């Protein structure tokens, strides 16, 4: 029995090393989101974006990133209270953009942020529950992406608990 005592340990070591090496090869990054964010990455890195102040209104989401100027959370009058808890460590900012409707047909849309923070999509006076969300800390250009089902008609995208006084984001119909 003694001569087989080290064999299971050696086998486990080889298996764990192989598994951790395979896991390390899947470091994540921009290609590891559950859906493509290639369009959003192009928009976020482009020099041209739609510059807006909190409270702005657009007919529909543009086919480019939006650079939104935010205000301290205490100064923002959100159309609907954010669903995320306020994180009082340091200065946090918020803001929102109103849209007359989705850019094309109603359906599944994705909201993608360049930095972290809380996102609410509001329609008919209620915060919509995201159908899916994902975040990566090792994707240069995209930090978080969420999907929402939008009906026809106006909607608002609200941002809260942002650590900077501006945020770059994009909205487009999901593929």
UniProtKB/TrEMBL annotation:
It comes from the Bacteria. Keywords: Signal. The keyword Signal applies. Residues 1-24 form the signal peptide. This is PA14 domain-containing protein.
